[in-house]
């Protein structure tokens, strides 16, 4: 008997996704470049093995699928995806479909969708979030492609996806690269959420001399309030774990140098292309890049004296930190959704903002209680910046004071809070009716005759610079 769906690439994510699909009752055929990996995978599939067909060649994979075929690719993003499409294409028939479930750059997905429209196999790009656990038991899925192609695979995707109060977290976001774009911004927000947590962790560790176990306790408490989220939950968990070799908290023996595969960077790059302000995410990317320069940082510590210093006794209370995090989170998501909105306009996608917030409520890495409130606020008025939605405006009105206190105290003690501080700076800019860009315009006109608008009306004025010392 032929399988309903195929999957290529049995790395961690591919293997977990295949098991998830089989568990939901679909017969699946799998192929991996290395045959031993395929064999080992099926040998370890237990009860699910009867629904899984191991194949030894691409041709065998294709033969073992019901037509029209649907084949999921779970291979590293970039060239491997193009190679796999090139290898599969001659083996496929009209109507067959390739689904790229990796972390593709949406511009690649746009190009691949274009190739499909020119006569190649049908193509869907789906962003899949949730790590290993999510892939196995319910990820969040952000689709991009043609509605009719999505409809064909939707029953499988909805079956394997996470459920929020029964609603599957699997949504078609728009054409071509729309799903991978949304996944990219998801990852940018993921970087920012992680960075803000790391910053507050740093304030507690260095500014308040709190041991990891105490920090864990606070995270745990926050996870029961407005900050309830997967990332706070795992931060409570990791700070509670003890290293078996040294008996110290494991976070204390982990090197402070963070890597990235690139999705956070892509978010920042695309935001710059779109002139969309996302300083919190950009700061998070910057912070990872700075963390990587360990040697230079050590040199800096030797030259300028070690930062940070301990905060004055009682300068900050745990509830200040929680409130500051709430403000930071609202500002970060407001920026992220505004970026999505700008991309939607620019690329003609009509991205469904409330649906994006909904699809992130379960399964994905940034899942949190607040996303449900965001879904509601975006449904009220999708085009409005989230900071102006009454629910969040009220929240910010209260919590920005704590963010301000935290950023100010931290600055005095040399505790770097790039993400939280840039969120605050953006918030303050957003409530400054008279900004300082008049000075920028004057300078531009002075050195380049770029012209300026006047407050009393009219465009393309020039200053009398030459007459008065210019
Ligand atoms: C997810 C994650 C996942 C992964 C990325 C980001 O949504 O499940 O975002 O896709 O962790 O690879 O990782 P980097 O930190 O390596 O960029």
UniProtKB/TrEMBL annotation:
Entry annotation: catalytic residues: 183, 190
Domain 6-phosphogluconate dehydrogenase C-terminal: 179-466
Catalytically driven reaction(s): 6-phospho-D-gluconate + NADP(+) = D-ribulose 5-phosphate + CO2 + NADPH
Similarity remark: Belongs to the 6-phosphogluconate dehydrogenase family.
NCBIfam families referenced in this protein's UniProt entry, alphabetically: gnd, PRK09287.1
Subunit structure: Homodimer.
Binding site residues for substrate: 103, 129-131, 186-187, 191, 261, 288, 444, 450
Enzyme class: oxidoreductase
Binding, NADP(+): 9-14, 32-34, 75-77, 103
Keyword terms: Gluconate utilization, NADP, Oxidoreductase, Pentose shunt
PROSITE patterns, sorted: 6PGD
Pathway annotation from the record: Carbohydrate degradation; pentose phosphate pathway; D-ribulose 5-phosphate from D-glucose 6-phosphate (oxidative stage): step 3/3
Cross-referenced InterPro entries: 6-PGluconate_DH-like_C_sf (IPR008927), 6PGD_dom2 (IPR013328), 6PGDH_C (IPR006114), 6PGDH_Gnd/GntZ (IPR006113), 6PGDH_NADP-bd (IPR006115), 6PGdom_BS (IPR006184), NAD(P)-bd_dom_sf (IPR036291), Pgluconate_DH (IPR006183)
A biological process term (GO) from this entry: pentose-phosphate shunt
Organism: Pseudorhodobacter turbinis
Protein name: 6-phosphogluconate dehydrogenase, decarboxylating
Domain of life: Bacteria
Single GO molecular function: NADP binding
Protein task: Catalyzes the oxidative decarboxylation of 6-phosphogluconate to ribulose 5-phosphate and CO(2), with concomitant reduction of NADP to NADPH.
Documented EC number(s): 1.1.1.44
């Amino acid at each position: 008997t032929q399988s309903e769906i195929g999957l290529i690439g049995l790395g961690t994510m591919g293997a977990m996704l295949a098991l998830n699909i089989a568990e939901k009752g679909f017969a699946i055929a799998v192929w991996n470049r290395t045959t031993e990996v395929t064999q080992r995978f099926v040998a370890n599939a237990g009860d699910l093995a009867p629904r899984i067909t191991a194949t030894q060649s691409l041709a065998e994979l294709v033969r073992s699928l019901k037509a029209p075929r649907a084949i999921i690719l779970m291979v590293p993003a970039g060239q491997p995806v193009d190679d796999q499409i090139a290898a599969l294409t001659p083996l496929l028939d009209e109507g067959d479909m390739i689904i790229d479930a990796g972390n593709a750059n949406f511009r690649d997905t746009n190009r691949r969708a274009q190739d499909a429209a020119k006569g190649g196999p049908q193509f869907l790009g789906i962003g899949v979030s949730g790590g290993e656990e999510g892939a196995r038991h319910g990820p969040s899925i952000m689709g991009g492609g043609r509605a009719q192609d999505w409809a064909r695979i939707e029953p499988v995707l909805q079956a394997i996806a996470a459920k929020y109060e029964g609603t599957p977290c699997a949504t078609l976001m728009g054409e071509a690269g729309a799903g991978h774009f949304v996944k990219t911004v998801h990852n940018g927000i993921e970087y920012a959420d992680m960075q803000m947590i790391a910053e507050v962790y740093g304030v507690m560790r260095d500014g308040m001399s709190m041991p990891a176990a105490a920090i864990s306790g606070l995270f745990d408490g926050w996870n029961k309030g407005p900050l309830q989220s997967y990332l706070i939950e795992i931060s409570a968990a990791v700070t509670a774990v003890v290293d078996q070799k040294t008996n110290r908290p494991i976070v204390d023996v982990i090197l402070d140098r963070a890597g990235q595969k690139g999705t956070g960077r892509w978010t920042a790059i695309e935001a710059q292309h779109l002139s969309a302000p996302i300083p919190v995410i950009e700061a998070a990317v910057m912070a990872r890049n700075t963390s990587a320069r360990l040697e230079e940082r050590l040199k800096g510590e030797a030259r300028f004296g070690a930062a940070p210093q301990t905060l004055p006794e009682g300068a900050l209370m745990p509830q200040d930190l929680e409130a500051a995090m709430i403000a930071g989170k609202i500002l970060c998501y407001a920026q992220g959704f505004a970026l999505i909105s700008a991309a939607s306009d620019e690329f003609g996608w009509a991205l469904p903002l409330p649906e994006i917030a909904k699809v992130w409520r379960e399964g994905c890495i940034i899942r949190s209680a607040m996303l449900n409130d965001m879904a509601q606020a975006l449904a009220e008025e999708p085009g409005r910046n989230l900071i102006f939605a009454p629910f969040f405006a009220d929240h910010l009105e209260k919590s920005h004071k704590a963010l301000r206190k935290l950023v100010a105290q931290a600055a005095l003690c040399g505790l770097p809070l790039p993400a939280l501080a840039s969120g605050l700076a953006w918030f303050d800019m957003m409530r400054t009716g008279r900004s300082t860009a008049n000075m920028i315009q004057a300078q531009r006109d002075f050195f380049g005759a770029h012209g300026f608008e006047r407050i009393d009306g009219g465009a393309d004025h020039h200053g009398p610079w030459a007459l008065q010392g210019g």
